[in-house]
Amino acid sequence: MDNIYLLMLIAITVLAIADIVVGVSNDAINFLNSAIGSKAISMRTIMIVASLGIFIGAVFSSGMMEVARKGIFVPAMFNFEEIMYIFMAVMITDILLLDFFNTLGLPTSTTVSIVFNLLGAAVVMSLIKISASDSQTFADLGNYINTKKAFEIIRGIIMSVFIAFSVGALVQWVSRLVFTFHYEKKIKNFGAIFGGISLAAITYFIFLKGLKGTPYYKDLKGVLEGNELLIIIGSIVFWTLFSFAFQKVFKKTILLVVIAIGTFGLALAFSGNDLVNFIGVPMAAYHSYEAWSVSGVDAAMFSMEVLDKKVPAEPLLLFIAGGVMVLTLWLSKKAKTVAETEISLSRQGETHEKFEPNMLSRGIVKGSTLLSDLFGKIVPEETQEKIGKSFEKPDVVLTKDQSIDAPAFDMIRASVNLMVAGVLIAIATSMKLPLSTTYVTFMVAMGTSFADRAWGRESAVYRVAGVLNVIGGWFGTAIGAFIAAGTVVFLIKWNPSAMTPILLLLTIILLVRNYLSHKKGSKKVVTEDSLIHAESSSIQGVINESANNIANVVKRGNKIYSSAIDGLSKEDLVLLKKNKKNIVKLSDEIDELRDNIFYFIKNLDESSLGASNFYINILGYLQDMTQSLEYISKVSHKHVNNNHKKLKFNQIKELKQVEEALRLLFNTTKDAFDSQSFEQIGSIINGKKEVFDLVTEKIQKQVERTRTEESSPKNTTLYFSLLLETKDLLTATMNLLEEYHNAHDKSVEAATIVSNLEEE
């Protein structure tokens, strides 16, 4: 039995390394988002700067290690055996919870996760001890849990959400008021002052305040304490002069330096604050094992009051942990998925919204609009106009795809994000509060987005829904961590020799499964049949460019129609269900093309307006086609799913004949568009009467059957519905072909749009 504690220690150490990987994948990417989103400096430079920050910050984190040792529970109330069970449960649940959020691509808090894991495991272990005692009751739970410190931590975490959002919004609003969105000229005049204040704030709070959490502070205490004001003034003067010299010598904006040093500072603050979340528990477990192994006392009798003493962190372990964090930062693909969430929610321009609006987000947006209208009535119009000019954005119209490739926001916002987040985290670290870096960086970014009016009427409900989803996930983290850790520690206590290996094996299986699932889902390659946006400025250009889209719609439509008939004839519910998903996907892609019409028309010159009419018409016909296919697919699935009578042999035979004729028509159409042989379209159109006549003939036959032999109203309704919708599908297809046939002129050369980005 003695060896089980050594095995537990080894398992906890291995889990700690894995925890750093999954934790950094979720948390560390937050301090890169501002630099990545602004695209001010190269990705390689960002990663190098952040890596240096993490290494140095790892040394700053030793003062935070006490949180895992005695910040949540009272060590003296537990014996060595119970402490090891608690630590084992915490590491298992922490790694699974963080990996789950990484797989979803949602930023969550490693601080909240570790705090509530420790709390859940300690509470359940305390209740087990209380239930086994004759003299103790539930009221004695407070003797086991460090309630004052736990509530202080939880209160700080919750407050950080509101403080970070408010401070970020206020600083960004003032910065935008001063510099506007056309900040290039003002940065030349006032950039040195902005750079001086920003860099002074970052360096003072990150380095000087951050030093308070380290053993190195005592050597500098005499110099620093009492001279804070002098140091701040001197720092502002130094950095202002540096900013002025940098802009003059290098002819580049000082914002580049602010973003680089801000990224370094935030990485350092992150590492100093959050490393405890990854290795605090393993180090406490190591010290516990070390004290017990030399005591000679039975594990169930050895009191863990040894953890009450302050133990310095081993620099080598901190260095190794910092190295693992840096490697994860460079190699983790899940980190990039998490980054996409925050950047998309704070993007200044249009984007493919990741979250669907909900009742709460709609209510918040409507309430904010009413408050804005009320504010508009109170503030004089002249003042509103003056403020409004500072928030006028550059007149550049980009498509959603172009907007995603462009910077998500400008360097002013990136600088404010980094400065405010870094300062707030460093203040908390100096106070030895394990503040959630995720909450702070995320909410600062949301606050600056809000102040920058990135959440306009077009996108507000989606962005607010996204923020609510993320915040809801944080509360889910807390509740899930508490319950999961409590459950796991109960199972381990029940039968440690059996449950420990079972739970470890289950952890490995779940991690591998999530990895494979994410790897599969992250392959966002454009499939061969996906649709592309038109960017040509002439009818002939749109004809040539959209030919591939038409070929793909016809190919996929052909498959959907055939699958519907096939699934109906075989009563194959699985095939029909899959078919419904395929048509929804196709319909969504065409809706997305329609969403792009605004940008397409805005990029046309007056001489090319005919292209817009043509483009709108073909999109309308494509939508008509998908609506018919969607109806056919839906009624087929509904009929089989409701277990109605199977279609009669003659009905299935006739539907197969129609499907064969339609397949031939669609294949010929696809070949014409694939090869861009638009001359063939005329012959396809000439054969439309033959196909229409076939469908009309089948309708007439069903009328005769209904009068004489048909006995199922459901079958009759379904059969007529399929044939009538097939006629509508044919009509939309022929209208599309006629539009191409009438508009195509091979003697005219196609023209394309020169985008605003290319012009610049």
Automatic annotation (TrEMBL):
Its main location: membrane. The chain crosses the membrane at residues 6-24, 45-63, 83-102, 114-133, 153-175, 187-208, 228-246, 253-272, 311-331, 414-431, 467-492, 498-516. Keywords: Membrane, Phosphate transport, Transmembrane, Transmembrane helix, Transport. GO terms for molecular function: phosphate transmembrane transporter activity. InterPro entries: Phos_transporter, PhoU-like_sf. Gene3D superfamilies: Phosphate transport system protein phou homolog 2, domain 2 (1.20.58.220). One of its GO terms (biological process) is phosphate ion transmembrane transport. Pfam families: PHO4 (PF01384). It is found in: Membrane. It comes from the Bacteria. It is a multi-pass membrane protein. One of its GO terms (cellular component) is membrane. The keyword Repeat does not apply. Belongs to the inorganic phosphate transporter (PiT) (TC 2.A.20) family. This is Phosphate transporter.
